[in-house]
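Appendix B: complex inputs.
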Amino acid sequence: MQAPLFTGILADMPNPLLRAHGLHKRYGAKLALAGVSFDVAPGEVVGFLGANGAGKTTTLRILAGTLTADAGAVEIDGIDPGRDPLAARARVGYLPEHDGLFEGMQVEDLLRFHGASRGLAGQALATRVAELVARLDLHAVLAARVHECSLGYRRRVALAAALVNDPAVLLFDEPTHGLDPLQIRAFRALLRDLSPGRAILFSTHVLQEVEASCNRVVLIDEGRIVLDAPLAVLQAQAKAAGSSIEDLVVERTLARARA
Amino acid sequence: MKGAAKGGDIGRAAGWSGALLVARREWRAALDGNVAPAVLVVALFASIAPFVHGFFLSGRAELSTFFAPLPWLMAAWLPAVSMRLWSEDLRARTVETWRALPYSRAQLVLGKWLSGAWLLALQLLLTTPLVGLVAVHGDLHATQVLGGYAGALLLGAWMLALGAWISSTTADQTTAYVQTALLVAVFMTLGEPRAWTILDGFAPELLPGTFAARHLSPRLAYEALVGGLFGLDALVLFVGQAALWLWLNARALARDGR
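Resulting structure:
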């Protein structure tokens, strides 16, 4: 079996905001995660790639605290969620694959509820909601109920809910799903603005998304990390080999399948 | 909250304020929907119907005609309130949202249960004009009024706790309704003299029916309160069992994949 490409080169990074170590998860007979480990440092935007069923969503759910790993450890901003789950969750903004929005709520009420749930109140809450509404262009749906919003708006509302308390760690599961090209560009710009000082991990199937937004790539296949490398290194490798990052990713996945 | 101090209550609503936030959201969600307001109106009319019938047709101004059939009416309508508490979140997968928010399971469970208890309290509050009618036209006993409403509130809160637990085990609201209504009916029937006599007959030396009627069924405790008898044992039964249902609710939420 081939060794994961570059896995561990960032494992000793100083003060990572997000740390996953040896995560294992099994659903009945199916092994979903088999020792997933990686760290994400402040300022890193990590593209989490993998085929359907590779383990991306399971990993994100464990990191977000909505699923328990069978084995392994997670650390969020230095906090062990096993010991203080609420403090850990308070530092994570999580955008699930399916929006996870309360359908009957008005968008403004929903954002205020998420803010209040995360300890914001009064003028601070009002200001933060106004900032997010402006930044994500939600004015048109502010008074609408969630079930009345289009897919693109729903995604943005869910994103606003995840960002409401300005968390240090951001976990996005397929964040651009349902967004049109203009909205995708706006999302990339948002990621650039958010990245300083934060650890951002987002899953996607779209390699172009990773190339446009990330500075590091983590590839998971059948519950194992098979590639973990800075984007610049991958780009240099691809250039030297006269191929593309897509070729490298496919090659790595196929190599694991053969092994 | 980037760079906030580790631990403590930073970035979350602590203690009761968290449970109240959850309760307020659920209360508004219930009233925004179609089921709870409709059920509230129907339950209100159904609960006062026996009293109105006795008052206008038989000339009886007695609160007993209101409190006696109330448990069975609540057994029909409160499962319709509790069925959506968790089943709806399981169906819509918003249970993952709840788990991602910085609430403890105790805050979530208490908050959801409180929202149902507020609906129950509202329904009971809307029946209080009956007390005025009895005061004017009948013989009003303060202990019966206090005991009756306390009993109705405790019994209803007990049913809601049971229903909340059942609803946390299924994504199907109809299943949650049926299972809760059936369980409530079983517990109420255990307090029926004919039922406990039959059960006692199976093991006369152990008297299982009598034990169940006294310690498991909330019926006798409710009837004692309606009769103006305030006993600690009734309170222990209601609070103890409700706490057990809510604990089971929290355990169900702790299961993976929810």
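Confidence is low (pLDDT under 50) at residues 1-8 of chain B.
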